[in-house]
Amino acid sequence: MRHFSILVILAITFSCADNPASEKNITDTKSLRTDVQLEFKTRALLGEGAIWNYKTQELYWVDILGKRLNVYNPKNKSNRIFPVPYRIGTVVPQTDTTAVIGLDNGIYILNTGHGGIRQISNVEEEILTNRFNDGKCDPNGNLWIGSMHLEETEAAASLYKVAPNGETTKMLDNITISNGIVWSGDGRTMYYIDTPTSQIKAFDFNLKNSTISNERVVVEVDPADGYPDGMAIDAEDVLWVGLWNGNAVARYNPNTGKMLDKIEVPAHNVTACAFGGENLDILYITTALIDMSEDEVAQYPLAGSIFSVKPGVKGVESDFFGISNK
């Protein structure tokens, strides 16, 4: 028995040491972070899809209902706007002058030089009761993008994988509002949100063929805190989640399910966040103006704006469309 106990202790010790999100390796951001700042004042109806282009040092984000892609430069506080003909769910950079976007009727490449678009997939073009929502790229350069039921009442949407050549594969179905999606630092775990479930799920990710398996729930979000929306991951493999109806961004440890930190934001509906800046130590936060009562509009006059905070930890470079990082 004595030898068995020693082996168990050693096994637990090595397990924790090898786990990038074990409690002892996680930074206490509450003691390090700065206050939230207004980064860019605007009135986006549904600001979403935050992602940092580390090559151009710009924040890409979308106003879904405003039907526009935004490219924000924090150095000169400028925000370039690219109108699109349909609601835009998400954006991921491809090159210095192109990005992949999801519109109501499919997946497109948008040129950030002249604003032109070309379709590479017409997935869900015929499903008029859905629209595309959040999406990000995996370590192999594929876009994972989910749809959502417009009435938000039926699990009638799906999650798709779109290859750089436009080949599209359904990966999950029975989704209501497909949202935040990120990968662990080693690329072997994918985290995913279907907002009405109030859960963050994890999947084993196969780097050889870009497939997922072993679905499990790693975080149960308390509805009292809001509903989980867009998501980012930091260099410690800990999750940062925008809270719709929650006035905040929360930090969750996916190995324990615990909320480690909550950053209050002066907007009722916090939609997404992304690490940016030259050192990836700034968290940019998007918000929405819709779905607010008159009292809430009066209480949060900056709703729809972009906010920023130094959270005390660094993020990681986002994967781009069509570019393999593994």
From TrEMBL:
Which Gene3D superfamilies does this entry report, sorted A to Z?
A: TolB, C-terminal domain
Binding positions for a divalent metal cation?
A: E48, N179, D229
- Quick one: signal sequence residues? 1-17
User: Which Pfam families does the annotation name?
Assistant: SGL
Q: Which cofactor does it need?
A: Zn(2+)
Q: Which residues bind substrate?
A: R131, N133, E151
**Superkingdom of the source species:** Bacteria
* InterPro entries tied to this protein: 6-blade_b-propeller_TolB-like, SGL, SMP-30
Annotated cofactor note: Binds 1 divalent metal cation per subunit.
The biological processes this protein is annotated with in GO are:
L-ascorbic acid biosynthetic process
Q: Which UniProt keywords apply?
A: Metal-binding, Signal, Zinc
- Please list the GO terms describing molecular function: calcium ion binding; gluconolactonase activity
Which sites are catalytic? Answer: D229
Ranges where the SMP-30/Gluconolactonase/LRE-like region domain occurs: 46-288
Name the PANTHER family on file.
REGUCALCIN
The entry sums up its family as follows:
Belongs to the SMP-30/CGR1 family.
Name the chain's protein: Regucalcin
Organism per entry:
Pukyongia salina
